[in-house]
Amino acid sequence: MISTYPRHYPQALASWAIPPIFAAVITGALILAAGGLVVYRLREVQES
Hints:
Blueprint: H1 5-47
């Protein structure tokens, strides 16, 4: 187990690290899109 652990560690690290990164990017993009939409609507309401 000890001899095979370091060999599989980078692959395991990648499989654990990549999905949260994609989730964070997608979540950030959705938050930015929603925030931009809210700001746009507020400006539209204020101008009229």
